[in-house]
Design a protein that fits this description.
Blueprint: H1 2-19, H2 24-46, H3 63-81, H4 89-93, H5 100-114, H6 121-140, H7 146-168, H8 185-209
Helix pairs in contact: 2-3, 2-6, 2-7, 3-6, 3-8, 5-6, 5-7, 5-8, 6-7, 6-8
């Protein structure tokens, strides 16, 4: 009976680990791992080389790898819908890529604008597309170290703005529900909304980031 009791306790503990909600720290760590993967994919696609990724950082695996694949797929669709919106972001924002402060402030300002009217998965995908587009610009302008700055900025934004929303949905795996239906037309409406919103406020954020004269 004692053996059975201990077995039951152990089984309950294991199930608790799988059933529990992810912690804030885990969600932020996963957000950054997804961002590194997304950026790396876009750098490869752009044909630009950069410094080796940081060591001892989590790489998407298991369920997170599936999330990363879906995030990239949705990003592909978003960038296909509005190909010019997520390219040459630094030029669109008219910012210098030689200053970490400028890059950080610009990214956080754009991120805040994306989610002004609420949070959706379409806007989350847009955030990652912005991060990757800006990272490609940085590497092309011989500022590869800025890639890690962008990843850290995204992680901090997730911690402050998206963690509560993510926890209500059980974590990043909730994005997999966006691709249950294979008909792309059924997903395009919220992706179009995200792309159009970003395209409109890029012009607005340009004036926000202009230095006072």
């Amino acid at each position: 009976m004692e053996v059975l009791r201990r077995s039951s306790v152990f089984a309950a503990e294991v199930m608790e680990v799988f059933d529990r909600s992810p912690t804030d720290k885990e969600l932020v760590s996963q957000a950054k791992a997804l961002c590194r993967d997304y950026i790396n994919s876009r750098l490869i696609r752009a044909g630009v080389s950069w410094s080796k990724p940081e060591y001892n950082v989590p790489v998407p695996g298991g369920k997170l790898a599936e999330v990363s694949t879906i995030l990239l797929r949705l990003g592909d669709e978003l960038e296909y819908i509005r190909p010019n919106v997520y390219r040459n972001i630094a030029r669109q924002l008219n910012i210098s890529l030689h200053s970490e402060t400028v890059v950080t402030d610009a990214f956080l300002a754009v991120a805040a604008q994306i989610f002004t009217a609420g949070i959706t998965w379409g806007k989350v995908v847009s955030l990652y597309a912005v991060a990757a587009g800006l990272a490609v610009d940085c590497v092309r302008h011989a500022q590869p170290a800025m890639v890690h700055t962008i990843v850290d900025c995204l992680g901090e934004f997730v911690r402050k703005t998206l963690v509560t929303w993510l926890k209500r949905r059980g974590g990043w795996a909730d994005i997999t529900k966006c691709v249950v239906n294979t008909d792309p037309s059924l997903r395009s409406h919220w992706l179009v909304a995200a792309a159009c919103s970003f395209g409109h406020f890029l012009k607005a954020i340009f004036f926000v980031l202009l230095p006072e004269r």
